[in-house]
Write a structure and sequence with these properties.
alpha/beta
């Protein structure tokens, strides 16, 4: 099987825990970072601007994505332009629709024309990818985040969808496909195998990186020992 060093895909850490981000920044295999309001709330972030500025002092040289908070297009655009000023390595996350299911393609195009690097997020369908790529095809750089993990949660195989997305994006070297919401470590290898450019990985999955390439015989024995140990500790009798 492939080693971590054999992978071509770029691994981005997905989270908003400041301590965790600092530690992961020390890892050379972490090529960028992504955040979102849900992760920030979970991490206890209270001041969005202050958090972003603190992180950007620590991480000034790898891509990092921050999301707009507004639901109307006028304020989305204002927030995107502000976030864009926070750092040269900043990508502004724009959801593919607002909460009213109104598409943001026109907004994406306007921001692209203003030179804003975008991370287009919450994408689930090939048709959405076609429209997004058309909107941002003249971008200096953009990430198209397709939530493969959430697609898999519906019982659908995300691999054919991701392959089709790659074909759509093939003519545009400035646009990268991002596999979002992985559910297990193996998703990194799946995404790499089909040529996806980036995968965002949460801290709990990143914690399993030391499992890569482990002997399955050793893992089997470790599992047996765990079951036996827990049975003894519980005092179970037959």
């Amino acid at each position: 099987m492939k080693k971590l060093s054999d992978l071509k895909i770029k691994i981005f850490a997905d989270g908003a825990d400041k301590k965790g981000m600092i530690e992961l920044y020390k890892k050379p295999y972490i090529k960028g970072f992504t955040t979102n309001p849900t992760l920030m709330r979970k991490a206890g972030v209270r001041d969005y601007r202050e958090f972003a500025r603190e992180i950007l002092k620590i991480i000034p040289d790898r891509p990092i994505s921050f999301e707009v908070l507004a639901d109307d297009f006028e304020n989305m655009e204002k927030q995107a332009l502000e976030i864009n000023t926070w750092g040269k390595n900043v990508y502004v996350k724009i959801p593919v629709t607002n909460t009213k299911k109104e598409s943001t393609y026109d907004l994406m195009k306007r921001l692209t024309e203003k030179g804003v690097k975008l991370n287009l997020t919450a994408i689930m369908t090939v048709e959405q990818v076609r429209n997004v790529v058309e909107a941002v095809k003249d971008t200096p750089s953009a990430f198209v985040s397709v939530f493969a993990g959430r697609i898999a949660d519906t019982g659908r195989d995300p691999i054919p969808i991701m392959k089709e997305c790659l074909e759509i994006m093939k003519p545009y070297k400035n646009i990268e496909l991002l596999w979002a919401s992985p559910r297990e470590l193996f998703n990194i290898f799946q995404a790499d195998e089909i040529g996806v450019h980036i995968i965002t990985v949460t801290y709990d999955i990143l914690a399993k990186m030391n499992m890569i390439g482990r002997s399955l015989d050793d893992l089997s024995l470790e599992t047996v020992r765990m079951f036996y140990s827990d049975a003894c500790k519980a005092g179970y009798k037959l």
